[in-house]
Amino acid sequence: MEKKEFKSESKRLMDLMVHSIYTNKEIFLRELISNASDAIDKVYYKTLTDKDKNFNKDDYYIRIHPDKDNRTLTISDTGIGMTEKELEENLGIIAKSGSNDFKSEQEMEEGFDIIGKFGVGFYSSFMVSDKVEVETKSIDEEQAYLWVSEGADGYTIEPGELKSHGSKITLYIKENTEDNNYDEYLEPYHIQNLVEKYSNYIRYPIKMVTEKSRVKEETKDNENPEYETYLEDDILNSMVPIWRKNANELTDEDYNNFYQEKRYGYDAPLAHIHLNVEGMMSYKAILYIPGQPPFDYYTRDYEKGLELYSNGVLIMDKCGELLPDYFSFVKGVVDSEDLSLNISREMLQQDKQLRLISRKIDSRISEELKKMLANDREKYEEFFKAFGNQLKVGTYDKWGQNKDKLQDFLLFYSSKEGNFVTLKEYVERMPEDQKYIYFASGSSVEHIEKLPQVSIVKNKNYEILYLTENIDEFVFQTIGQYGEKDFRSVSSDNLGLEAPEENEEEENKEATEVDEKLLEKMKEIIGDEVVKVKTTGHLKDDLVYLSTEGDLSIEMEKTLNSMPQ
Ligand code: ADP
Ligand code: MG
User: Fold this and answer.
1) What is the ipTM of this complex?
2) Among positive and negative, which fits the CA dihedral 79, 84, 90, 91?
3) Phi-psi map region of 331: left, alpha, beta (phi>0 left; psi -120 to 50 alpha)
4) For the whole model, what pTM was predicted?
5) 108 carries a ligand binding annotation
6) A: where is this region (predicted)?
7) Residue 95: CB within 6 Å of ligand 1?
């Protein structure tokens, strides 16, 4: 039989798994169970949208079978299964977009991070196995297939035996080493613990065959009844979705586990919101504000959205209509009994009910962020580091229609605080004689501090906001005014400062009478690089500075000039 090679990235990832020093190996079980659950969701959905098919709840489950004698752990499901082509595509290549990005050897060595960034899904099974078999039969094909791999050097595919649709993943568990106890993955009680920890809310029963003993029927009246062992399925998970539970029954750890189990992210969420709305439109939701942006967050590949369930049935895994763009980082799930199951994507877009939910979600996230900003500044700054740019884009996006709502969520670096402040904080402590909200742009705080114009404004004891992101000035332009104060770049030629008191007259006179020629000469030498050369009474320690005549700062002009026309 021909052995096929993994695509190169998969091979690397596989290598990493096989030789993994990652301590949290047990997550492989969560990954396989979640794949099994996804596969059943797909059948479920198919039967709901296809009149000829029925979904009989009892037929759908996940079964785990630890077999000590053969050192195998089998996870089977009655899900949608895979065709030969799907096997090849799904298990021969890493499905995740973005995984191509980790090419450098260094990144490979920092395997831990890769797991954190991308999640590893199916491949994680190689952290605990010498060999993995996937036997699967697609719901759309008669023939089953068997995929076998012993690690990075490749895999084979041959016809398999399964008669009904679903998949059966058999792991040949590694022998114990000094550092790793692999035997535990063959222990029923350990499996039980892992399922409770990571997969308790999976909506399908996760069964495990366990050996039990009972009195033999024919000896039950004897003085010394005989016992016999028999096999029975135990259901390991509670199956009640977390969002159906009462918030006061749940701990932060429950919410965090759900976040992990759902693979919303591999970080720890900063906050969660549990919604239970009754009324014209009843629904429950759990929303998370993640701690870290996903690896593809600031790229075009990122797709916003919440999982949408209709009474416990997944109908969409990324319903974008539920989230405004400026909160696109939010993860979570919405479940409503009042949504029809058969809604297609097109219909969803127009769904009034959905708009109702999304408006509520929008306002609850805003509330949560406001609360965080007011009560836990450190956490809010962490949040802002991760997602502040999205909020900034939100203020000028869509013709600035959301600026009033979003402007108070923004933080900018302050010359006075040496830390981040809100516009509100800035304006509230402005001295009475200060006319403008001053800002200075540059590539870094250190760079900005060196600008001569900065010291001019600082000498007046005015606070300056340091803008280090290209988009910051767009944000100010869109906001226009805050608290009836205009924004003003320190490189503007009209800083609105009171002229310095001492020697003002003299200086100006000198400039007009004596230096006129010198200034002309300077302009001649510099040429068209500048519009004008003039004197100023504002400088103290520096000799010259560049300023602009219009509203734009020099940095902004640079940005605009560097943009494709
Ligand atoms: P992900 O689940 O994030 O897509 P995985 O590596 O876990 O990534 O799985 C890769 C793909 O393999 C899945 O997207 C799915 O198409 C397929 N797959 C894995 N396990 C199963 C299964 N038990 N039944 C059907 N398809 C599966
Ligand atoms: Mg997966």
Assistant:
1) 0.99
2) positive
3) beta
4) 0.66
5) no
6) 1-345
7) yes
